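Q&A log
Question type: sequence-to-structure
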Amino acid sequence: MTALDKAIYDKYNADVALKAALPGGLHADSAPQDTAFPFGVWLWLNNMNELTFNSEGDDASLQFSIFSKSQSVAEVDNAADKLKACFDEATLTITGYHSIRMMRVLERRIKDPEEAWHYFAEYRILTQKQ
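Response status: OK
Response body:
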């Protein structure tokens, strides 16, 4: 688990409302087989090293996905609202880095062919090395 992964998990783990909205948990990369619904997954889209004149940091893109098998969209929307409340403009505690900004840049909700609701949101995370 990277320092950024740990920061994401720690932020989730400290949020009682988000944990309650995701009884199946929030997992890095993929959820285990037979995970209870609804559940969430985060996945790194990219992580670019950024160099400026006097500092080094990262510019990372992360996707959260939430899956629900409920017939109603209310369950996935509730979990999405809790996710946004937790991570929109969040300050992450990242070992070896200062958290500069975490911003949501995209979100969408769809119903997949297996009749599960899928909400996904992309976040951009800017950090500076300490």
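Response note: The beta strands are 26-28, 39-51, 56-68, 97-111, 117-129.
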